[in-house]
Amino acid sequence: MELTQGKALSTVERLYQDYGFRARELKGQGEKIIGYVCSFVPLELIKASGAIPFRIRGNIFEPITKGDTLLETIVCPYYRSCFDLSVKDKYEFLSGVVIPHGCDSMVRSFSTWSYGLPYSYFHFVNIPTVCEESSFEFFEEELNTFRKSLEKFFGKTITDEELSRVIRIYNENREKVRALYELRKADPPLISGTELTMTLTAGSSLPIEEANDLFDQVVAEVKARGSSPLKKGPRILIDGACLDHIELIKLVEDLGGHVVADAICNGARDHFPKTDVTLPPIKALSQRYLDKVNCPKTYRANKAGTFEGDIANRFGDIGAYAKEFKAEGAILYVYKYCDPFGFEVPARKAYYQSLNLPMLHLEDIYSAGTMGQLRTRIQAFLEMIG
Amino acid sequence: MAEEQKEAKPKKRMTATKAAASIGPMVKEFITGTLQARAEGKQKLAYTFIVCHHEEIFRAMDVVPIWTENFAGICGAKRDAERFLQRAESLGLSRSLCTYALCGIGFDQWREELGQMPPDAPWGGMVKPDFMISSGQILCDPRSKWYQASQQFMPDVPIYNIDLPYPLFQRDQDHREVLGYYHRYIVKQLRGLVAFLEEQTKKKMDYDRLRELVDLSDRTWNLIEETYDLRKAIPCPMGTGDAMNTMVPINFMMATQKAYDFFVELKKELEEKIARGEGEVENEKYRLMWGGGLPSWFALTDFNYFNSKGASFPVETTYRMVAPLKEMDLPETKDPIEHLAWRWLGYWTFWYDKARKRPGSEPDVERLINRIEEYKIDGVVMHEAFSCRTWHVGLIWQLHQLAKIYKPIPVYVVGKDGKKEKVYRELPSLILESDIIDITSYSEVDTRNKIDAFIETLESIRMNRAA
C-alpha cells in the first residue's frame, strides 16, 4: 500500500524537486541568501547577520560538465556536482558562499570557488582537526573572525543577544527533526526514509522559521496516518557523508527494506547535536560544531588504549542510533575519493561486527548511473538479513 | 593472499649532478638506520610526516623519525608498492585514497600479521614505531587518518596528533589580522608535542639544543634558497629530476649538519657547472617549470625523456618546502618553539601580499608567475596524481588563471625605457595523469606521446618567435 501524501509532504516534494525556488523568491523580495556546504558551517552566525543560509546541493541526474573544466575529477564526486551546478548558475540567487575546512576537496578548491563564481561574498572557516582545550580556544577566535566578516559584508553588528536568540531557534529545529525521527520507530515505520530525507533536504533550502513550520506540518500529517500502511521489512541504518538525494534510500525501500536511522551529514550527524544555551554563544557554537558534530575529519584520540575501546568511543553514536531505531542492518555508503570516510572503512566494519549488525559497504560516485549496480548488491544484502 | 609478486625492476634515472646521485645511498642509510636503532633499542622511533616544522623537536629529543611517506615513495620507486596496496584494498580501503597511506597501512598490517618484516621488504622494511606523530593541517586529510587506520593493527602504539593550521588566502581578509591567534594555537600544539615526547622518552627537552637546531635549520633554509636560485642560469645546471632527489635533505634531513653540508656541496657543484657553461641538457632548447603535483616515483626516467628532447626543468614548486627567511619579516623571539610557529606561518603565507597586489591572482598562481619570470620559463608541466587531493586539486584552475596572462597572441608592454614593446608571452602547459606510487595508473607510451606533442607545440612557438 502506498503512503498518502497530504499538503505538507506535497510542499516538501516541490521544494525538493525544484530545489532553491523559495530562496529565489526571497531573493526577489530583497533577502540575502548565503550558500554553504558541509555540516561544519555555523549557520547561526549567518542567520544572526540577517541573511538566510542555503545548503548547496548536488544533483545525481545532472552530468558534471562545466565544473570539470575548472576542478579536477579526483575531487569528491558529491562536491564536484555541487560546484558544477554552482558554476552553471543553478544557484544564481546567492549573494555569497561559505566553505569550511571539511576535507581536502573543500580546502584545495576554495580559490576555484571564490574566483570561479560571481558572488560578492566568500568566506572560509578553518575547523581544527583535534578536540582539545587549545583547539576550542582557536575555534572561538575563528568563529569571531567569521562573525566580523559577516558584519562587514552586511553592515550589521551581530550581538550576543541576537546570536543566543538564533541558537534557540536552531535548537528548536533540531527538536523538530528529532520528532520526525520518532516517526521511524514504529515497525513498519510511519514515515519512510525517502520522505524523511526529502523533508530534511527541503528544509535546508528554507529560512529556519519556515523549515520549523514545515517540519511541524509534516509531523502532524504523518501522525494522522495512525498506523503505517507499509509492509514490514528489514530496518536499515545508512552511514556515510552527505546524502542529499533520495535515490539510494528509495532503492532500499523499493526492495522491501526501510531506512529507519542514519549517521549522515544531512541527517543525524547534522541535526541531532544541540547547542548548549547556558554557555556564551560563541563558546557554545565552538563546542557544538567541533565536538558534537561527529565527522571523521576530526581526529579523536584513542583514550581507551585498545582498538575495541577506540571504535566504541568514535562510533558510539552510531551504535546508539542502531539500538534506538532497532536497525537490523547497516549500509556504509562512501563516496570515491573521500579520504576522511574512506580511511575509516575497516574500523567501521569492525565496529558493526562488534554490534553484530550486518553491514554492506558501498563505494559510489554520486551518479544516477550507478543505481542499477547498487540495486543488485542491496537486494542480495536485504535478502541475507531479511 | 596472492599479491606477493614483485613488479619489474625500474630503469635508473640519469642525474645531472653528483649531489643528486649521492641521494640513493643516503636514503638507504637512514632506512637501515631505523632498523639498527630498533635493534639497539637506545632511541625511540616515531612514524611521522614531512612538512610539519617539528624535525628540530624530534632531533633535540633524540627521537628517530620514520618518514612513512618516504618509505611508500621508495616502494613506488622500486616498483614494489602493488602488493602493499592490494593488502590495503583487501581490508576495505579504496584505491582512490592516498596511495602513500594505503601502501603504509598495507605494509603495517602485513608486518603485524607476520610478526616480522614482509618478505623482501624494500631496503629491509619499515620498523614498528614506538609511537606515531600524525598531523592535522589545513591540507592533507590522510595525515590524521593514516596512523589511526594503522593503529587497528598495532593498538599498543600511541598517536599524538598535532594540529598545524595556517590562514587560507581570502580576498577580503588581511591574514595579519588572524596571525596572532593562529600563532598562539600552533605554539600550544608544538608544546603539546614536546610534552608527549618527554613522556614517551622519559627525558626533558634541552631547549639550548633545540635553539641550536632551529638555527641550523634556518641557515639551511637560506642556503637552499641560494642554491636553487643558481638554477636560473642559462643553460640550467640542475633540473627537477635531480630536485626530486635533493628534496630528501630538505624534507627528511632538516635540522641535521648533514643536510646543511649537502647544500654547501651542491651549491659549489652548481657554481662550477655554471662557470663551465654546463647545463642539465647539452643543447638547452626549452626551459620548463614543474608547476604542480608530486612525481610518479616509478617513472622518474620521464625527466630524462624530456631532457632528450632538449627540455630542462630549472624550477619546480613541488617539494621546495622552504622560502627565504630574510624576506619573511618574522617577529623576533628567543623561544625556539615560538620561532618554529612563526616560520610555519611565514612559509605558508609567503606569497599572500604579492598575490593581493595583482587582481585575479592568488598565492599559488603568484608563485607560478614569479617562477616563470625569474627562471625564464617556456612552458609548464603539471602532474595530476589521482590518489592525492592535497597537492593536486586546484592545478587546472591555476593554469586557467595563468592563461589569462600568458596569452597565445602577442601583447604590447611598456619596456624599461618607457617604450612599448611587442612581446610574446604564450606559455603552453601539459598535464600528465597518473599517480605517485600506483603504477597501474601509468602508461609510458601515452605519457611519452603527450610529451612529444607538447614538445612539438614548444618548438612551433619557438619557430614563430624566431620568424
Briefly summarize what is shown.
By secondary structure, chain A is α/β, with parallel strands linked by helices.
Could you characterize the architecture of this molecule?
The complex is a heterodimer of chains A (386) and B (467). Chain A is an alpha/beta fold. Chain A has a domain of 114 residues: Rossmann fold (3-Layer(aba) Sandwich), CATH 3.40.50. Chain A contains 18 helices and eight strands. In chain A, the strands form two sheets. Chain A has a four-stranded parallel sheet. In chain A, strands 6-5-7-8 form a four-stranded parallel sheet, with helices on both faces. In chain A, helix 11 crosses helix 18. The longest helix of chain A is centred in the middle third of the chain and has 23 residues. Chain B has one domain. The mean pLDDT of chain B is 94. Chain B is 49% helix and 12% strand. In chain B, strands 2-1-3-4 form a four-stranded parallel sheet, with helices on both faces. In chain B, strands 6-5-7-10 form a four-stranded parallel sheet, with helices on both faces. A two-stranded antiparallel ribbon of chain B has the order 8-9. With 467 residues, chain B is an alpha/beta fold. Chain B is globular, with a radius of gyration of 23 Å. Chain B starts with 17 loop residues before the first helix and ends with a helix. At the A-B interface, helix 5, helix 6, strand 4, helix 7 and helix 16 of A face strand 3, helix 7, strand 4, helix 8 and helix 16 of B.
Q: Termini of chain B, distance in Å?
A: 62 Å
- Order of strands, main sheet of chain A, comes to 2-1-3-4
What gyration radius of chain B follows from the Cα positions, in whole Å?
Answer: 23 Å
Q: Strand order, biggest sheet of chain B?
A: 2-1-3-4
Radius of gyration of chain A, CA atoms, in whole angstroms: 20 Å
Query: What fraction of residues of chain B sit in β-strands?
Result: 5-15%
Q: In terms of quaternary structure, what is this?
A: heterodimer
Q: What are the secondary-structure elements of chain A, in order, as H or E?
A: HHEHEHEHHEHHHHEHEHHHHEHHEH
Count of alpha/pi helices of chain B: 18
Number of strands of chain A: 8
Number of domains of chain B: 1
Largest sheet of chain B: 4 strands, parallel
CATH architectural designation of the domain at 33-146 in chain A? 3-Layer(aba) Sandwich
Q: Which pair of protein chains has the largest interface, and what are the residue counts?
A: A-B, 62 and 62 residues
